[in-house]
From TrEMBL:
Residues 117-230 form the Lipoxygenase domain. Ca(2+) 1 binds at G17, D79, D80. It comes from Albula glossodonta. It comes from the Eukaryota. Belongs to the lipoxygenase family. This is Arachidonate 5-lipoxygenase.
């Protein structure tokens, strides 16, 4: 019985791993394999940064492997997965690599073409040509412009960052970075203002009162303790 070895690489960014079910189907020029659940007993599959291998046995030769279909199904809660690539080792010992480098979200399936560079007109198989066409149509639906107002430049058809496809959103690391930088900037801004007030002289009581107004608006707690220290 011919046996293929499938190696799956998961991304190393935050939350790239998944606990969802991952099914794989090999699509060859002769026939397809059974839809196979990729699961190793007593092992946490598809964790962040992992490279996991699985055997896929078939009853008959599949021919040349043209496409790999991946399906993700919910296990407990929807758990997005970042797949880097899939490598297939054929029964003859050849390796075919299928680059992915994208998020697999919800209960979706993705179909990967092998990574050998070739122009669309050079595709030899009907399967690969159809796949290119479907991929193009899917991307045209996913990445689209919207006219905000006649005469204005077109804008991306999304109301918020979260409405964008996951692959073009900022990584989780970047999102956290933004929040931390924002907090730090606000903190520095008010600390600098506070220092400036104390380094400059006060001409009357109005200046003095402004200090306490500013402090109570920024860092809670200081406004009550500081006057008592004075
Ligand atoms: Ca897992």
């Amino acid at each position: 019985m011919p046996r293929y070895t499938v190696t799956v690489a998961t991304g190393s960014q935050w939350f790239a791993g998944t606990d969802d079910y991952i099914y794989l189907t090999l699509v060859g020029t002769e026939r397809c394999s059974e839809k196979t659940l990729l699961d190793k007993p007593l092992y946490n599959d598809f964790e962040r940064g992992a490279v996991d291998s699985y055997d896929v046995s078939v009853s008959e030769n599949l021919g040349e492997i043209v496409l790999v279909k991946i399906e993700k199904r919910k296990y407990w809660v929807q758990d997005d997965w970042y797949c880097k690539y899939i490598t297939v080792k054929t029964p003859c010992g050849d390796y075919v690599e299928f680059p992915c480098f994208r998020w697999v979200v919800d209960d979706k399936e993705i179909v990967l073409r092998d990574g050998r560079a070739r122009l669309p007109q050079d595709e030899k198989t009907r399967l690969a040509k159809q796949h290119r066409l479907r991929e193009l149509e899917a991307r045209q639906k996913l990445y689209r412009w919207r006219e905000w107002h006649p005469g204005f430049p077109m804008s991306i058809d999304a109301n918020a960052h979260k409405d964008l496809p996951r692959d073009i959103q900022f990584d989780s690391e970047k999102g956290v970075d933004f929040v931390l930088n924002y907090s730090k900037a606000i903190e520095n801004l008010y600390v600098n203002r506070f220092m400036h007030m104390f380094q400059s002289s006060w001409s009357d009581f109005a200046d003095f009162e402004r200090i306490f107004v500013r402090i109570s608006n920024t860092i809670s707690g200081w406004s009550t303790s500081f006057p008592q220290l004075c």
